[in-house]
Amino acid sequence: MGLRHLVTQGCIFDQDLLYDKFPNELLPFDYDAYFSNRTTFEMVTTNCLTGGAMYLTEKKNKQRALDVVRASSSLPFVSKIVEVDGIPMLDGGIVDSIPVQRAIDTGHDFNVVVMTRNYGFRATGKDHKIPNFIYKKYPRLRVALSRRLEVYNAQLQLAEDLEREGRIVCIRPQRPMDVGRIEKDTNKLEKLYEEGFEEGEKFIANLNAGMYVRK
User: Fold this and answer.
1) Rounded to an integer, what distance in angstroms lies between the CA atom of residue 47 and that of residue 52?
2) Triad 102, 20, 79: Cα angle to 5°
3) Quick check: helix, strand or coil at residue 5?
4) Host H or E run for residue 168
5) Considering 48, 72, 80, 136, which has the largest number of Cβ atoms within 10 A of its Cβ?
């Protein structure tokens, strides 16, 4: 991660490492198992033309699957726009950070939502209008970016409401997270990982004990 990658690759992260060396060499991804699995796996992107969310899946083409992954994780301002099927896209978190409503709308009546923040967290700060010279070709994207915090906080509220109603189960940190978006402190990252693992084990134990009633 660094400005050198932003200059040479158009992204603050090392895309060659993330989307080539890792899945193809260092930690080879089992594409055959993924493609043959009957489970639907959707990835969320933001359509830069419409400013809306797109929910994409790919179970045949290796390169398109990687392109969707890259688009889905391309943060605005510090990553270049990625084209998939000829459509310019960026990180889906711009417009749908917690796509639980998407899961409900597609017919899933029991949903598990993995949160990155503790209960009651809300993003602070204010949304700001994006100047016209930024993403000049994509006015709808600018609108979406100008409402980012508002939309995210509304989704946090929705998740908490659905949780109280017993319609979803949330796996989340139990205390405020001490890890930044581009954290480099491996001790902090490992501590958060261990907490997530423990919360996941609690969920499995409760699930096996029949504590979650599907409505």
Assistant:
1) 6
2) 60
3) helix
4) strand 168-171
5) 48
> 């969707």: which residue's tokens?
68
Torsion of CA 178, 179, 180, 186, to 10 degrees: 140
Answer yes or no: are the C-beta atoms of 107 and 101 closer than 8 Å: no
Q: Strand, helix or coil at 211?
A: coil
CA-to-CA separations, 181 to 58, 75, 178, 185, 212, in angstroms, rounded: 27, 11, 10, 11, 32
pLDDT for residue 13: 86
- Count Cβ neighbours within 10 Å for each residue of 118-129 and write b for 16 or more, e otherwise: eeebeeeeeeee
Say whether pLDDT at 215 is over 70. Answer: no
- In angstroms and rounded to an integer, the radius of gyration of the C-alpha atoms of the chain is 18
Q: What are phi and psi of 111, to 5 degrees?
A: -125, 140
Q: List, for residues 21-47, the tens digit of each pLDDT value.
A: 999 999 999 999 999 999 999 999 999
